[in-house]
Amino acid sequence: GAVVSQHPSRVICKSGTSVKIECRSLDFQATTMFWYRQFPKQSLMLMATSNEGSKATYEQGVEKDKFLINHASLTLSTLTVTSAHPEDSSFYICSARTGAGHADTQYFGPGTRLTVL
Amino acid sequence: GNSVTQMEGPVTLSEEAFLTINCTYTATGYPSLFWYVQYPGEGLQLLLKATKADDKGSNKGFEATYRKETTSFHLEKGSVQVSDSAVYFCALSDSEGAQKLVFGQGTRLTINP
Fold first, then answer.
1. What string of pLDDT tens digits covers the 117 residues of chain A?
2. Closest Cα of chain B to A43: distance in Å?
3. Is A86 helix (H, G, I), strand (E, B) or coil?
4. Do B43 and A103 touch (CB under 8 A)?
5. Strands (E), A1-117
6. Cα B63 to chain center, whole Å?
7. 20 to 30 Å CA-CA from B72: which of B5, B23, B57, B83?
8. Closest partner CB to B101 (pick from A102, A106, A111)
């Protein structure tokens, strides 16, 4: 089946630093990737939709200058949390979609736990 | 806008019990419906899906039927196992545009031996 990886799986950083998270589709080409944020014991909140070669589309309330998304190839998307603060601590999950039909399925990465001290 | 509502958890059952997790949705058009499962320490995995009214999705003994008349997609399993302990998310994907997934709040299921 389709596999999506994320790196790193865990990261701890100091307040004010930037952190980059990678999302890769290992055995398929993903024209669209999605970035989610999951708070403890809560559902996934979509942050942005990323299409290869174009600017990401951010959901309402998500700061695009703080959460930089790059989708440079059909197998790689990156999320950079700039000038991270403790309130950015969360579980970040990416997903990648195959094809473009109505019944497509998104395949999820294992997530990255970010802790900002 | 589109939304998904799941029964609140946590749900605790004994092994071999019958499971139902309720899910209802609000959507325009004809969405696809999904159940995802998140095992402890792991990412989301697709459990089953249905793309049109009256379709039944099934996998690993779990079933869910797309009911357009009641806007529901309840998850059922006849006999649960300890290994089914996880968080279950109901979700829909709109039929137009970016086809983004909208998730319910998740239901934590614990099965005791």
1. 678 999 999 999 999 999 999 999 998 888 889 999 988 777 889 999 998 888 899 999 999 999 999 988 889 999 999 999 999 999 999 999 876 554 567 889 999 999 999
2. 5
3. helix
4. no
5. 4-7, 10-13, 19-25, 32-38, 44-51, 57-58, 67-73, 76-81, 90-97, 106-108, 112-116
6. 9
7. B83
8. A106
